[in-house]
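User: Could you check the structure of this?
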Amino acid sequence: MLQAEINMKKSEDIENPLSVEEIEPRLYLGNVTAATNVVFLKNQNITHILTIDSFPLPAFVASSINIVTKYIQIADMNREDILQYFPSCIEFIENALKDPKNKVLVHCFYGVSRSATIVIAYLMKKYSLSYQRAFERAKSKRCLVQPNHGFAQQCKLFHKMNYSIDPCCKNYKIFRLKLAAEQVKFAKILPMNFMDLLKPDPAIIRENPEPFVYRCRKCRRIVAAKSNLILHKVPKRNENFDSPISRRRESEQKYLNHLAGETSDQDAIIDITDKILSTSLSDKSLSEGKEEQPKTQKEEDVEICNKFYFIEPLLWMKDVINNVEGKLYCPTCKTKIGNFNWIMASKCLCGTQVFPSFYLVPSKIDFSNVVQNILQVTI
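Assistant: Sure, the predicted structure tokens are below.
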């Protein structure tokens, strides 16, 4: 062991004393001090280490003992995409524990958020648990467990996708679009690792075309398929959403409620936050452990908005790669058919704000049934 590494480890041990607990038989969750303490690793017969941290383990750990390691580089920040690593990390743990002689240590710097998130995701999949139940199970073994809010939401999304990553899941699409938007905000271009967000051009002839599509009203070119839609709900107060009278009445009612003590500070914070961070992906849509209740026909009629067609980005939208905002033109006749914005929310006529947004204006688009059209031509 190099002297510099020894001095660094001693300094970390003082600030971050060894902390580790056994969450499951032969599965440990701890901090970096535990993962770099060779004596501890030998005494506990640790055979595998999964590092979820900003830096990999020092070289002396792997060279001192015969141990299998896996490293995931990630910061403990709400907007980090830890969800993408769930499948590979879970597989690493599962494969290691197949041998009854093996023991796995999962760690980050403190063993509180990043590594805890991975262990929770493992418990969720292994026992088909909701996030909350898996969280409580892990916390009962290690009281320090506390994933940050963003990681907790990603665990809930993992549960919603049945413990896998489903690229067709609406909430997953929105989640990744938001991650991409954060990158575009600073880089001003769409990073290469998000190019998969650009879905295939629906106008390309394929063996099994989607039956329901949206066409440019002027030249009839297909510009989107029904599966490309990102639906949003109409606000409950839809009729007079933006009328001055309704806004005044709402303000007056809030003021009266405040005087009566009916409005809490928390409600005010939530109200302000909702306005600042307007989004079509709400925490409620990922609510823990609650199955969506069947909707009545009346509820379905008023919930889904069709005033604007918000869609996922498509390959024919060339400008979305190198611009943060702009107009969408039909790739054939060049007619303006919509707009896009990576960094600002776009407000639908129903009042909902969607971010990021790629939308087609209904007056420029026609909905049609491809199969029906083919049959008509054939006949």
